[in-house]
Design brief:
It is a single chain. With 179 residues, the protein is mainly alpha-helical. Helix content is 56%, strand content 3%.
Amino acid sequence: MTVHASPPSGDYRVPCCGRTLTDVILDGHTTTLAPHAVTCGRARHTVDTITSDALDQLYARIDTLERVAKSSKCHAQIIVQELETADAARLALRRRAEQAEADRAAVLREAADVAETVAIRLHAQHDIGGSTGAYEAMTELRRMADETQPAPPHGHRPCCEATIGHRPNCPTNQPKDRP
């Protein structure tokens, strides 16, 4: 018959293996107050019952756990640095994309201005067909420039650039406007 250490007063888990007292009883096992009589196989050592081999095993296990914890901490620090670098790159790319859109809009507006100048010159030369085509090109170029930088949708709230956590004055933390 398997014998477990009795739980301390008020506790429902046996200290030797952590099982609940109910599980121990349902399995037909028994408990004892005498630590030397515990036979569950997962007995926890006390100062009186531990052997030097068991103590060496515990120290080896502690060393292993400390190395694993140190390695995990170093790995986590590397991951955090990589995430910060990736986030900075993402923000830089977003800014470059916004700048490219602004540059595209500026080029389209400049082309529209040139088309308007051509339309005026053709109109002055009484080339109504050419003038009309140049005005149509100008209108299309200005429409494309306007679409390049769309206005934010109604009720749009600017988002901060934080990816982990937000400051108290962050727009994402403010109450949303009711329509």
